[in-house]
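Protocol step 4 of 5: obtain the predicted structure for the target chain.
Materials: sequence only (see below). No template structures provided, no constraints applied. The aim of this step is simply to have a reference model before the mutagenesis design in step 5. Sequence pasted as it appears in the construct record:
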Amino acid sequence: MKKNHLCLIVMIISLIFLLSGCIKIDIKIGVDEGYTAFLSYDIEMDLEKIDIRYKERIQNALNRIGWHYQEENGFIVELDIENNPSRLVMTKRTENDSFENAYKSLESMLTNENITPFMTVDMASDNSKQQNRYIFKASTDISQIIQLSNAEELSPVLQEEFINAIETGEGTITLLLPASEIISFSHQVNILYHQAIMAVPLSYTDKTELELTGVVNINADGSPGGSIHEITHELTKYRNLTVIGTCAVLVLLLIVVLLRMISKNKR
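Step 4 output (structure tokens):
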């Protein structure tokens, strides 16, 4: 993993803790029900207690980060540094026409060293017309990212405070992927409206790992479906409606033929 702006984000986070501020960072990744792949950073900071000189430096740094992610990496950036808490939201989205393409788009994002929050990524999928099976594995290690930052350039006292500050950090990585069923997982997963949701606490001292193996059943219109039972039920209902419709047409044709025969006989 190269030195990138994620290292600068980590540095800013640690300095905010060091200066008695508060911060919350949420990272969201995945594929939504419309097959749009996304990666989002949501950073919220309470800078009220920070000295005005440091506050301005932090705000300027956040502004530079937002500009870089927007101009160089195609993120949509929302930055609010006028109010407290300050907030920086950066989101990259790629629309796709299928789960297979969306999964590939997500993999492209998460293996891009300029924007990924992960140090290792292993993604694979097996796709058919009715079903997609996928394996997602990824890990990050903030302690190693710290080593890639400029922490070693601080004075010994500040460097110690830096490490102590980052160890108190909090954060969450949320993975969202379409799913009809889950085969295996590393953390608790909830399925809501055919969407698997895994929220993992982001550790600043140990490796953070995510693993999810799932199945997406595909409806006839190409949208993510439910369980095999639900899809079979829908197909059975569709076939029954087709049979009923066909019988109704045949009955109408028979009635028309009979009416014509009766009409001829009367003549």
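Step 4 remarks: Residues 228-267 form one domain. The chain is about 40% helix and 35% strand.
Proceed to step 5.
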